[in-house]
Design a protein that fits this description.
By secondary structure, the chain is α+β, with helices and mostly antiparallel strands. It has three domains: 1-36, Double Stranded RNA Binding Domain (2-Layer Sandwich); 40-108, no CATH class; 114-151, no CATH class. The protein is 32% helix and 10% strand. A two-stranded antiparallel sheet has the order 1-2. The longest helix has 17 residues, at 51-67. It is elongated. Mean pLDDT is 74; it is low at 66-80 and 140-147.
Length: 156
């Protein structure tokens, strides 16, 4: 009988060059290539290839819940004291701070909270609205606008 600790690896992946000593490990690996994600998370939209991957993911939810700082939005896990909780549940991207994670959440959202008062165009990020508003300003800025405009934007 072959075990995972033997040097013989008779089971080959049909999609790549990886080989395995145990057939069940090969079957789990091949699911990566077929995107067979039959293990859904009950708390967010993510799905997993193996039950063990789902268990690891569920621990993130539990760690954030126990610390009492989990976000109310299901796609976010955020807790500054616990780096495992600063991970986007939608794309698994990790962040250095809870603030960066909240800002990133706009990427996955259709919500455009920042609306131009002049033309009603909407944006996901306040910085994009701020840049857009410059389009509505006249070519000749008055003195009040010059005083409030950062110097790096004043063209001479």
């Amino acid at each position: 009988m072959l075990t995972a600790h033997t040097t013989k690896r008779p089971f080959s992946c049909r999609f790549c060059d990886k080989t395995f000593a145990v057939k069940s490990n090969l079957k789990d690996h091949e699911k990566i290539h077929t995107d067979d994600r039959q293990f859904p998370c009950s708390r967010c939209p993510k799905r997993f290839i193996t039950a063990s991957a789902l268990k690891v993911h569920a621990i993130r939810h539990e760690n954030c819940k126990q610390s009492g700082t989990a976000q109310s939005r299901p796609q976010l896990l955020s807790d500054n004291s616990n780096p495992e909780c600063r991970v986007c549940c939608t794309c698994d991207k990790k962040f250095a701070s809870a603030v960066a994670l909240r800002q990133h959440s706009a990427v996955h959202s259709a919500v455009r909270s920042f609306v131009c008062k002049t033309c009603d165009k909407s944006f996901k990020y306040s910085s994009n609205l701020y840049a857009h508003r410059r389009l509505h300003k006249p070519k000749q800025m008055n003195i009040v606008e010059l005083q409030t405009t950062p110097s790096r934007w004043i063209k001479c």
